[in-house]
Amino acid sequence: MILSLEEWPAFSDLLDDFGVLRVFFHFFAFSYLSFM
Question: Which of helix, strand or coil describes residue 35?
Answer without folding.
Answer: coil
